[in-house]
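quick one: iron/sulfur cluster bound model?
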Amino acid sequence: MQTNLAPFIRDTAEGKEAEAILRKCTHCGMCTATCPTYQLLNDELDGPRGRIYLIKQVLEGSAPGPGTQLHLDRCLTCRSCETTCPTGVRYGRLLEIGRPIVEKQVGRTPAESARRKLLRTVIPSRRIFNPLLALAQLALPLLPQELQRKVPPPAAAGRPWPAARHARKVLLLESCAQANVSPATNAAAARVLDHVGIALVRVPKAGCCGAVSLHLSAQEEALGYMRRNIDAWWPRIEAGAEAIVSTASGCGVTVKDYGHLLARDPAYADKAKRISALAKDISEVIVPVQDKLKSLISHHPSRVTEQRVAFHSPCSLQHGMQLKGAVEALLASLGYALLPVTDAHLCCGSAGTYSVLQPELSKRLLANKIAALESGKPAAILTANIGCQMHLQSATNLPVRHWIEALDDALTR
Ligand code: SF4
Ligand code: SF4
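yep, here:
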């Protein structure tokens, strides 16, 4: 695609990056076929090709209006388009560059700005999130029915964490939402890794990965979270930790991008690059040791094979990290009966804060996803990201949980 970027961005690092991405796009339109918002709205400007064109216009100097902002806001950042694109257009990165520029030029109403600020403040802060969650759980009968389904029940006291007794150590990226809502997930990951001789180590000084701020166009705030995490992890990495592991793919995919996002920060660029290289989804740690797990599980085959499960692959896992099919293959090899799910490449509508900011589109995607997941009559739905897990659970009576918890049950129940 020919480009002629405007002077305000042309010679900046971001301008050069955006230009390189735009030039890769041949405008073929193949990506529109796999874009969830295009499928729902049937509008070229609510598909990746149209959004690329809108961002190009802004970078070339056209003044964006509220219409442009709305089309960009409606994007889920699911990156399904990246998986489809034959020329490797990094749409997600282009959107990260384009959205804040549009945000700055178009602005938001005070109410909308306050709502976004509230999300950026509450979600990453346990100090604020936990009391609010407890309050919502107490007031549950007084809440509207639709909201009741969105409030997760109080977390049950789970089985204990194993002591960090192995020489092989990996660091845990504790997703803010997951640590608050589903603490059993990381404990399950620690026990499964303990079975194969790897200690999962918590790093209390680390915190939010920065994804919420990044997706809400607060880039400097996001970079601040990233620098804080690097400072917290670095001494342990120097001491020999092998990886930084996440059981929430929405957070893991962001850490994998630290190297890129901090590339222009002389104090952090090298460290961030190393952090990205060490960032792993939990499945990437489990797959290499699956034979060992298989032999452990073979002592209790009935714990596994009785379960008919449907797996929802989060967009951050299959498109963001390009780990499509990895968890499904792992579970199948361990004896789970995985049911087919139609349109498994499509987003469930959770997408970080999307379900709050674009509730109508989110609900439609959720209804489609639940129908696809329930069609084979599974006993449970498994997934790999807390946002998807909570979103799906709000619309089904089937249990929805992280696949590592099912594996932990099979090993230690
Ligand atoms: S992003 Fe890729 S698939 Fe979409 S129009 Fe451009 S080249 Fe084609
Ligand atoms: S990221 Fe997802 S919603 Fe956004 S344009 Fe790409 S496919 Fe469509």
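The chain has a mean pLDDT of 93.
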